[in-house]
Amino acid sequence: MIRNQALIDRLSEGNRRFLDAASAEGDVSPVLRRRTAAEGQTPYAIVIACSDSRVIPESIFSAGIGELFVIRVAGNVLDNHQLGSIEYAAAHLHCKLILVLGHTRCGAVSAALSGGGDGFIRYITDEILTAIGEERDPDAACCLNVQHAVDTIRREFAEHPEIPSADLDILGAVYDIATGKVRWL
Ligand SMILES: [Zn+2]
Fold it and tell me: N or C: which end of the chain has fewer CB within 10 A?
């Protein structure tokens, strides 16, 4: 059941503007910068996205200063640092929409499909391999990786004393780096 349809519509509408305009941008005006500095931030969504330089949530959703609380990590995987960031934004900034945004042609997913990485990268590819199991199709693996993160967030915050799960939407989507479109899962 969707609880915050207006917030989801706002992301979708932002992506539509991004697709329509050659250089869609959110409001990054000095006025808004000063106002949010003085009054604090009230982002309307939490976005967990890959660090890939082609995947820029503020651009993809035509968002400006103070609108999105963005967590970026290669492969959009989660561990306790990311969960702590989500917890902060949901409990203290009262974000009611949490979006895990995977993307096409993700290097982290490709590395996992190729058997995993070396060094610190292995922490990321191991998490992706846990998410995708036996799946070897890149697009299907990407979706499974997003769904795994969505399931983790739902599980970890199911009974959180400061985050009423009855108010939350925790969703997954995949951004197509070729077309610019966001596909909701
Ligand atoms: Zn990626």
Answer: N
- Does the pTM surpass 0.70? The reply is yes
Cα-based angle 178, 144, 177 (whole degrees, multiple of 5): 10
Strand order in the sheet with 182-184: 68-72, 45-49, 97-103, 169-175, 182-184
Burial class of 161 by CB neighbour count within 10 A (0 to 12, 13 to 18, 19+): exposed
How far is the C-alpha of 107 from the C-alpha of 109, rounded, in Å? 5
Distance 19 CA to ligand 1 centre (A): 20
**The two structure tokens encoding residue 5:** 């349809």
Alpha-carbon gap, residue 29 to 8, rounded angstroms: 24
Q: Which residues surround ligand 1, an ion (CB under 5 A)?
A: 50, 52, 106, 108
Centre of ligand 1 from the C-alpha of residue 159, in Å? 30
For the chain, the residue count is 185
Q: 153-181 pLDDT, tens per residue?
A: 999 999 999 998 888 999 999 999 999 99
Distance from the alpha carbon of residue 77 to the mean position of ligand 1, in angstroms:
10
Closest by CA position to 73, among listed 56, 42, 96, 50: 50
Compute, in angstroms, the gap from residue 84 CA to the centroid of ligand 1: 21
